[in-house]
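FYI - complex with nicotinamide-adenine-dinucleotide, inputs then prediction.
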Amino acid sequence: MRNRQQGDVGGSVGVPDQRQEEMTAFDGNMLEWESPMYRDAVGQFDRVAVLMGLDENVTERLRFPQKATVVTFPFRHDNYEDVDTLFGYRVQHVTTMGPTKGGIRYAGDVNLGEVSALAMLMTWKCAIVGLPFGGAKGGVRVDPMGLSRAELQRVTRRFTMEIINVIGPNSDIPAPDMGTNEQVMAWLMDTYSQHIGHAVPAIVTGKPPALGGSVARREATGRGLMFLLPQAAHHVGMDYANARIAIHGFGNVARYAAISAVEMGCRVVAVSDISGAIYDENGLDIDAVAKWTDEHRLLQGFPDAEHIEGDALFRVPCDILVPAAVQGVVTSQNAGDIQASIIIEGANNPTNLDADDILRERGVFIVPDILANAGGVTVSYFEWVQDVQKYFWSENEIVGRLREIMTRSFDDVISIATAESVDMRTAALIKGIRRVADAKLVRGVFP
Ligand code: NAD
């Protein structure tokens, strides 16, 4: 076992020390997936592994993705003349637990490091809520806002062909994430099915119900976040009826979180998107905001609210903050300004490690991403089970089972937090990592 420092993601077992030094000295970026986000994910994992006294060999193994695929492919624009080269990724972190599962994101800055970090988080998330999956993640480095519908379809079909040998209904099942949606999943399913020769609905989740998608999948992540609000509020002694909620984002997760929050009697005082944020201290009319964005795509120009800078959302007076757009938005720069006493993380990795420390010291109760936004993958799991069994459940059944899994997982995590005197993120990681490590230890090493 080599001598490893906490937070050091450089190096791998079996690399002689001298070679290791040379590689580190090369440019400090010796691992292909090395990136600030990956370092954060591994830093978090290392911290908890030490706390748990995790088996050293298992610890070492879990610090790296098991498989990482990088593809480049040509993309012809609508004008026919221009052909760009696009980069795509699919990373499978752990294949011990069953098939791997995780979203595909389209964004102009997606990279292997980001996708590898998110695949690791997916492993813990699936284990926390008890799903028989390891974590995966994928993406294409392209801004979907700049694509026509035909271009989006071409990118999706070509990317699917590029990764067709690493995905499968029993091996790795994609889902929507930032910048992708039901339609993108439908094209992915169609491309895969054409290749295989018959319809394979179980290849992907988050598809339209007409193709074997699950009812209530679209709402699942946002709704799942809000299922945890009563327990979180109870923990901090807050009456959540009429509580003020600020939600960063207004995409899939944020929108359905906002709708659920209103249904629960809360006031959604602010939402945002890439064009900025809107604010109303008395509560926004979320139906009107949703209608506006359906018609105009962006919040820009919405008439019935005050328009503020996107970042200003983190400073508005509120009781609950739900970051539900992108990673890395809660930082040491704004953590001191956040007025909420509860943060429910809808986005993956929205809070960096420094900010996490500041918020913990300030006594803010954080329901971490790997627990809070697990509603999406949970209903994706239901969808996959329904596709495999070719037997579909009612919306009531799905929502009831989702609520049961989310609230039970919250109870499990808070019990660990209390027993071990740790915060919720650490407790959630303990739960997830323990389950994966146990499975790895009993499977043993092949050959
Ligand atoms: P989405 O593409 O539907 O929405 C993203 C939102 O973020 C949009 O409102 C967009 O305008 C905003 N945004 C994009 N870039 C931004 C920036 N630089 N600054 C501020 N806002 C920005 O995506 P989504 O599916 O709602 O996913 C949001 C987050 O939730 C991501 O972190 C994703 O990984 C995570 N997540 C999604 C699901 C799911 O089921 N969709 C499940 C679990 C976690």
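DSSP finds 15 helices and twelve strands in the chain. Residues 176-179, 221, 249-254, 272-274, 310, 324-327, 346-348, 373, 376 surround nicotinamide-adenine-dinucleotide (CB under 6 Å).
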